[in-house]
Model the fold of this input.
Amino acid sequence: MIQNTKVLLKFIKKDLNVRHKSHLENLKERIASGPSLQDFIKNPEPILKDDSANWKQYEGKLRQEKGDKERLRLPPWLKRTIPIGKNFSKIKEQLRDLNLHTVCEEARCPNIGECWGGGEHGTATATIMLLGDTCTRGCRFCSVKTARAPPPPDKNEPVNTATAIASWGLDYVVLTSVDRDDLPDGGSNHFAETVREIKKQNSSILVECLVPDFRGDLDQVKTIVDCGLDVYAHNIETVETLTPFVRDRRARYRQSLSTLEAAKRFNPELITKSSIMLGLGETDEEVEQTLKDLREVGVDCVTLGQYMQPTKRHLKVIEYVTPEKFLHWERVGTEMGFLYVASGPLVRSSYKAGEFFIASILKNRRTSSA
Done:
């Protein structure tokens, strides 16, 4: 009985091998005589750069109409690959080792590969996020996680941050943070301590602080201004009429303007900076008024970029603004007298090109003073 079973199993195995071989040969033949890769590529969409005039070739829908339920399809000029190189891996590993967070990761920035990887010039940059990775506010455009009572700040963070930045050999760094309404000072002293530690380790590093509104507490604004930073940044985010629907209820348009105005008043030589997201349903008149409001309170630099819906739980994109329109706002901002305007679909508040431009201005000022 056992012998017969062995013979039967051997026969079945041989039969299966023959069938498998026959199937593979048949599959190879079908592939060889079947369609090529080019047969699957129908009307490939061009990947456009921000300054390309060929965006008009795109025939997809760019704006949501009333009653639309489906999300807009991503236009070609917003499609990016994320290159990962040695610098990218090195920075990511070091951030994890030192328990540091970046807004690049938390906000899912599309430029993370270029900035961390070094881009065409091989200079790596990153925006460090202080005070942990959990925010006390719940803005409807932001993917950073939230809680009413986040863990207490890491007391070693200022030193760890300075150590990491010094080892990267950067000449310009951006520090930002989540909102910490649970802290009496909103985290302003933690910010200030970090800046002082960076300057202590390397006084030549230029430091930009992209800070919260501190609930409108101008004493905390002064704490930041007096800590030795080079650029004071706070994002207005959107136009005044959309602010209650886009930002947390504790974040108010006029409150943001007042903190930027105060920073300039406390130190007129300090460069101030803000940012606007487009594509949330704002009108051209509202964007222009926002630029005017920022200029009136002395803001020197402004960036305009496309809002990108981070998850299905967040606000939908109402419009994908064309590269041509972004160029229009760059011209408008320049004519208004801003020191620097960065405007493009993939521009973000911490934008590498802008940082290098501002750095050159600050270095020239230092040289002139010397």
Residues 39 and 282 are 42 Å apart (CA to CA). Residues 5-9, 27-53, 116-124 have pLDDT under 50 and may be disordered. The beta strands are 101-102, 127-130, 172-177, 206-210, 231-233, 271-278, 301-306, 340-343.
